[in-house]
Write a structure and sequence with these properties.
Layout (H helix, E strand, L loop, with lengths): L2 H5 L4 H34 L4 H55 L2 E5 L5 E5 L17 H34 L13 H20 L6 H13 L4 H24 L6 H5 L4 H15 L5 H13 L3 E3 L4 E3 H6 L9 H18 L2 H5 L20 H10 L2 H9 L6 H8 L15 H15 L15 H15 L10 H10 L1 H8 L14 H11 L3 H20 L7 H24 L5 H4 L18 H4 L2 H16 L15 H14 L7 H23 L3
Length: about 675
């Protein structure tokens, strides 16, 4: 900002603009409250079906959030404009005061026309009127005035330019919507961008040669700004995709004897998390700069990044930053499709991911796995973004993603220091599959069941298809994950397990053979088995109490059939693991971890029967411990007699006017259980 621009500036329009934006923000917050409480509230309570469930409800939810984002953006703009007006008005006042004091010493400041200015004598002593004198000044006075005016102009320029940059970035983050970045003053936005630029220069200039003290400050700064949108985007775009990868490659590689590897090894995990949150937040921006960043990062995935002592693929480096934070869905989709395409070209990806000259020992510092398998970090990111996960597992072009990661993909041990743990990539894939099939992040303990959509059902169908085809090679790491998925979809699972036959016209019906095989595999693990049965017990109670069938007795018979179906799955599991029935010997019902987020909530009437049914089911499980694994034959389905009796009693409570006797109803449900068991045997091919 030059001298005359500040001296003669009229900031009244800027003040008006700041006031207008603040007034608009106030109105938008009122609309946001209406949209969230009225529009969003009614949408959440309504029962949606068909296209409305997937399109209309989602549109309403997105629209309600847009009001919040619009209000946030308007508030931030108003705050920045208000602070900028205040600062510029202050700089103008300071300039006027400096010029006034200069005149008192016969000094004037004049613009030279090229943005510069000069300090000169105002009136030469020789030109004063007779009998008058002019104030005296020294060369030091002129220099001091010049320096003061220069500082004022530099400050005004900084205020004006950083405000312009902040406003431009705020608006560009969401060209077709509104940004959720919140700023309460201009200084916060300006400081965020300056600190991001400083950190980018440090990472580019010194890399892992920075001092331990500089690294500590870097970690503190990243933690401080982990939720700051302008900081995130400025750091990511200034450092660039290649800069991100090259820095992490050098920091992780200990071959150069880096001081940080020796003195700050225990802090590398914190840094990895903080940097991950920064990059993830940056991808939420839809600005052209960040779109280009994301595209370039995907392209760098299959490149080898040279460290001082080895070479590491871009995917291996980037995926380790994807274990934390909320990553943009579009980026996740592009990244995942490209990663799979690269692995398919490799033929044997494990050979490549374990390669190197020599391999960098550890690329991940936030868990046991070494971070060499890029699928682990990517799937962890998918689990935290259920929408992206659903899209990934339903994508069939250019690759059938579900078939590849659930069936075909080659895995390898990425935790060689612990030979008894599971496979990290499969653990992460299981979590991502849960998110895809349920709409719930399985790692978020506060998440609650989502309304299931046709896309969630599609993920369920495809997961049953590919995982059941693996038979006894079903990944143990995914047993509890599939239990959560079947729990969330307990309605169609109960409907299918209790069906009398295949019916192509029944849209709710799952492939019963696939369902039985997957249920068998879950039944090989105590926690997964318990979770599945707990969910089905609740679903059967819900079905009994919310009966909508033409014949109320159908719910009783369907409950028996499902019990028989699940018992066959358990018998098949016992037969498979007859040489190692270890969990059966230490059975103890304790409530099953992770189930709460996925088991649908029951009404009051059904909820009252949960504990009683759980107790009776537990008695049957304890009785099994002392029994042989031989199949229980006969009309009295003895292995489940307590559970079946409890279901019959619950049916009587729900239908007190039925007139049916307890004996007859218990006989009926036992018969249905036996029939269901027999049908399941047929599906399994047992004789």
């Amino acid at each position: 900002m030059d001298l005359d621009a500040l001296r003669f500036a009229d900031f009244s329009k800027l003040a008006t603009a700041a006031g207008d934006w603040s007034a608009m923000a106030k109105k938008l917050w009122e609309l946001e409250d209406d949209a969230r409480a009225d529009l969003g509230g009614k949408a959440a309570k309504a029962k949606w079906a068909g296209v409305n469930a997937t399109v209309t409800k989602g549109f309403i939810g997105k629209t309600a959030k847009e009001f919040a984002d619009a209000a946030t953006e308007a508030t931030s703009i108003g705050n920045i404009l208000r602070d900028t007006h205040s600062e510029l008005a202050d700089y103008k006042a300071r300039l006027d005061e400096a010029l006034r004091r200069g005149l008192e010493k016969n000094l004037t400041v004049a613009a030279t026309g090229d943005g510069a200015f000069t300090v000169t004598m105002n009136i030469h002593p020789d030109r004063t009127a007779k009998g008058h004198s002019v104030p005296e000044h020294t060369e030091a006075d002129a220099t001091a005035l010049r320096d003061e005016v220069q500082r004022i102009l530099e400050g005004a320029t900084e205020s004006d330019s950083t405000a312009a940059k902040a406003l431009t970035m705020l608006v560009s983050q969401s060209p077709y919507g509104f940004s959720d970045a919140a700023y309460y003053d201009r200084d916060r936005a300006a400081d965020a961008m300056k600190d991001a630029d400083r950190i980018a220069r440090l990472l580019k200039g010194k890399g892992d040669n920075m001092s331990p003290e500089e690294f500590d400050q870097l970690n503190r700064d990243l933690a401080k700004y982990k939720d700051d949108r302008l900081f995130q985007e400025t750091l990511a775009t200034t450092l660039g995709p290649r800069g991100v990868l090259e820095f992490w490659a050098d920091l992780a590689d200990p071959s150069d004897g880096s001081t940080l590897q020796r003195t700050r090894h225990d802090q590398l995990g914190d840094f990895q998390r903080n940097f991950s949150l920064t990059l993830a937040g940056a991808t939420q921006s839809d600005s052209p700069a960040m779109r280009a960043w994301e595209n370039d990062m995907v392209k760098l995935g299959e490149e080898r990044i040279q460290t001082r002592g080895s070479q590491v693929y871009g995917y291996q480096l980037m995926s380790n930053f994807m274990r934390n934070g909320d990553w943009d869905n579009r980026f996740l989709g592009d990244y995942g499709n490209a990663l799979i395409a690269t692995e398919k070209k490799m033929k044997l990806p494990a050979n490549y991911w374990n390669g190197g000259l020599p391999a960098v020992p550890k690329l991940n510092f936030t868990g046991e796995d070494f971070g060499r398998d890029p699928m682990t970090g990517f799937m962890t990111a998918l689990a935290a973004s259920p929408g992206a996960a659903t899209e990934f597992f339903t994508t069939t072009q250019p690759t059938d993603n579900a078939q590849y990661v659930l069936g075909d993909r080659q895995t390898f041990d990425d935790t060689p220091l612990n030979s008894k743990d599971g496979n990290a990539a499969r653990e992460a894939t299981g979590a991502a599959l849960v998110a895809a099939a349920t709409g719930v992040d399985p790692n978020d303990v506060t998440a609650r069941p989502e309304d299931l959509t046709p896309e969630h059902r599609k993920v369920l169908d495809r997961s049953l298809k590919y995982l059941s085809a693996r038979g006894d090679d079903f990944p143990p790491e995914m047993r509890d994950d599939m239990a959560k998925i079947l729990s969330a979809h307990s309605d169609v699972v109960h409907h299918s397990a209790s069906s009398l036959s295949a019916d192509e016209g029944d849209a709710r019906l799952l492939d019963r053979g696939q369902l039985l095989e997957v249920s068998k595999q879950l039944s090989r693990d105590q926690n997964a088995y318990g979770m599945l049965n707990e969910a089905m017990n609740r679903e059967m109670l819900k079905d009994i109490h919310e009966d909508r069938s033409a014949d109320p007795k159908e719910t009783l018979l369907r409950s028996g059939s499902t019990v028989g179906f699940l018992e066959e799955a358990r018998y098949q599991a016992l037969k498979t693991d007859k040489d190692d029935p270890s969990w059966d010997a230490k059975w103890l019902y304790h409530g099953f971890g992770g189930a709460a987020n996925f088991i649908p909530v029951l009404g009051d009437a059904a909820q009252r029967g949960v504990d009683a049914l759980a107790y009776q089911w537990q008695l049957d499980e304890q009785a099994r411990i002392n029994a042989e694994t031989a199949r229980q034959n006969g009309e009295a389905f003895a292995v489940r007699e307590h559970q079946l009796q409890a279901l019959a009693d619950e049916w009587i409570k729900a239908h007190p006017d039925s007139g049916a006797s307890r004996y007859v109803l218990t006989t009926d449900i036992n018969g249905a259980a036996f029939d269901g068991n027999q049908r399941a045997q047929g599906l399994a091919g047992d004789q």
